[in-house]
Amino acid sequence: METFEGSSTGEAKGVEQSVRTGTRPRARSRRLGMLAVLGALSAFGPLAMDMYLPATPTIATALHAGQSMVQLTLSGCLAGLAIGQLVAGPLSDGMGRRRPLLIGLVAFVVFSIACAMAPDIGSLIAFRFLQGMAGAAGVVLSLAIVRDMYEGTGLAPVLAPVIGGQVLRFTSWRGVFGVLAAIGMVLLVASWFLPETLPPQRRTPPRFRQLLDDSRTLARDRGYAGNTLAVTLGTAALITYISALPFIIEDAYHGSPQLFSLFFTINAIGLTLMAQLGTRLIRRLPVARVVHGSLLVMVAGALAFLAAALTGHPPLAALLVPLFVFVASFGMMRPNGTALALDGHASIAGTASAWLGALPFMLGALLSPLAGLGGQGGATVAGVLIGALCVAALGCQVLLTGGKGQRQHD
Questions:
Q1: Least confident range of 244-248, 362-366, 372-376
Q2: Other beta carbons within 10 Å of 133
Q3: Longest dimension (CA), the chain
Q4: What are phi and psi of 343, to 5 degrees?
Q5: CB neighbours of 12 closer than 8 A, spacing ≥ 6?
Q6: How many other CB atoms are there within 10 angstroms of residue 406's CB atom?
Q7: Residue 131 burial (CB count, 10 A)
Q8: What is the C-alpha separation between 144 and 91, in angstroms, rounded?
Q9: I want to staple 134 with a disulfide (CB 3.0 to 4.6 A). Which of 1, 107, 183, 240 is the partner?
Q10: What is the DSSP secondary structure assignment for residue 250, as one 8-state letter?
């Protein structure tokens, strides 16, 4: 689950008043409950994208499809997540956050059921695209809601493949999509009680021209552009790792889906610890320096993974250790890079969040099929892609922002 941290002047005043009135425990409990729902909503991207990954070799067999076609089910979901965010984000700037969110949740449940019943690989690719579009509402609107309420954001680990691996102990890949539908239903009920966080006086008309104008404003901001590209390229590297890992472990090294889930658990723990370390470091160091340092470590891990892959068929540990370094460092980079990018864009938070969320999925949709081109496992191709993406992320963050992060806005 993702968590969010931050405070605002209004929140501070509310806490102070709650102390005087004796209602602080109730207010704090309500706030924690709301953040828990928002964290779960923000995990829709990882849930829709990753939870079925341990089953991808099984899907290939069951639907008589090749590895490249199964990879297209991931690309379809990523493309849907990208396009859906570009629709839901600007739309919410004009309609408010709550209505588009509830509509997206209903659609997510419907298309998750459709995925579970897909008769062939072509239908599954189409339903995955629509499922991704629906899930995008949870991703972008949870981030926009947090930006409405607080000054900063944080990210914790993606555990979806771990859940998926355990679900496969008891059911088939179709059951994984059934579980996704059930999760969507639970979050639909929980989200019904979320308040509207964007008052009418702060809304802007959801016009296409407005999207273009807001996008130009964001593109001219070097801080937003540099940090968004760093997050985009870093996330695309993570998506490449996610799409290649089940075939590396289960095909090239003949591991089980549960072994795949175990490695994801270890990486998720590292990601969590580094994310928590990042929240402490930014109290002592400039946020931009923390982002820059975490990108350097990501590059080191990615290049070490590539070096191991180039040796041919190394011991599995030689691939997994540098991947752990890369993934854990991503846990520190992503939330802080996101916070820097969104800083100062409260009036167009929906559009800013939409591009920040959509660009990684657009790039990931293009690159994920390439991760399997190297044949069984494809570690070498994945290593080239991950290394190049991490180096490019570091370059964008340094060159466009000057290493200073986001400038302050009015």
A1: 372-376
A2: 25
A3: 67
A4: -60, 125
A5: none
A6: 22
A7: 33
A8: 12
A9: 107
A10: I
266: tokens are 């270890």
Q: How many CB atoms lie within 10 A of CB 163?
A: 19
Mean pLDDT of 93-121: 87
CA distance 117 to 140: 27
Instruction: Please give the Cα distance from 378 to 374 (Å, whole number).
Output: 4
Joined tokens for residue 158 = 């993606």
**Pair 95, 206: CB distance under 8 Å:** yes
Block residue for tokens 């070490």 = 304
How high is the pLDDT of residue 17? 42
- What residues have CB less than 8 Å from 304, skipping those under 6 apart? 321, 322, 325
pTM across the whole model: 0.67
- 261 and 161 Cβ atoms separated by less than 8 Å: yes
Which sign does the torsion angle of CA 191, 194, 200, 201 carry?
Answer: negative
The Cα 350–Cα 331 span in angstroms is: 23
Give the whole-angstrom CA distance, residue 32 versus residue 19: 17
User: For the purposes of burial, counting CB atoms within 10 Å of the CB of 388, is it exposed (0-12), middle (13-18) or buried (19 or more)?
Assistant: middle
